[in-house]
Amino acid sequence: MFYGKTDETKDRVPPNQKVTTGFPVLHYGDVPEYKEDLSDWSFRIFGLVDNDVTLTWEQIQALPTNTAQNDIHCVTGWSKLDNEWEGIPAEEIAKLAGVKPEAKYVVLHAEEGWTANMPLTDFLTPGNLFAFKHNGEVLTPDHGYPMRFVIPHLYFWKSAKWVRGIEFVEKDKAGFWEKNGYHMYGDPWKEQRFSWD
């Protein structure tokens, strides 16, 4: 169900967005399937780091976790308010890696070659998580099980589903959607939907 802005939500909903009480599923390509025990799953941290490391699911689960509440905004025009996520704070991943001073951007790597880019300063914004739960429930496959990144202050395509690694780089490089016409940054309050915006 979708509805417009109300007096209570007007300061939380960017221009030309409609609020939904559902959680629309949008993606291109197949939904990855994993073994039940995630024994073949791994997460790599690489690029301009002191510690190029590949973590198992058990090692990821052993990292410090946190919860964050936020609103999310999809480039297709829907917003979902009052989400609660549980996962690993972005700064914990950066701390584990030992990010080199020359790193200015990150590229998230996900299944099937999917990538998403963002400035390092945006990646490190408090509240960003590598999430494995949404509203108290384990993520469904359609929403990124077993882990997705969540960066709520940018359009939701930057919150890569099925994330498998992060690369720290010196120069910005377009991710999958950016190569296909989406904006390099994606601020919903400025309606940075497409490369020409």
Quick synopsis:
The protein contains four helices and twelve strands; from the N terminus they run E-E-E-E-H-E-E-H-E-E-H-E-E-E-E-H.
Describe this structure in words.
This protein is mostly beta strands and 197 residues long. It has a single domain (12-23, 40-190), classed as Oxidoreductase, molybdopterin-binding domain (Sulfite Oxidase, Chain A, domain 2, Alpha-Beta Complex), CATH 3.90.420. It contains four helices and twelve strands, in the order ββββαββαββαββββα.
Provide the fold topology.
Elements: E1 2-3, E2 18-20, E3 42-47, E4 53-56, H1 57-61, E5 66-73, E6 78-89, H2 90-97, E7 105-110, E8 115-119, H3 120-123, E9 129-134, E10 137-138, E11 148-150, E12 163-169, H4 176-179
Task: From the structure above, extract its key features.
single chain; Sulfite Oxidase, Chain A, domain 2; 12 strands; five-stranded mixed beta sheet; 11% helix; mainly beta; seven-stranded mixed beta sheet; 197 residues; globular
Radius of gyration: 16 Å
* Number of helical segments with 4 or more residues: 4
Helical content (DSSP H or I, runs of 4+): 10-25%
Low-confidence stretches: none
- CATH architectural grouping: Alpha-Beta Complex
Number of strand segments: 12
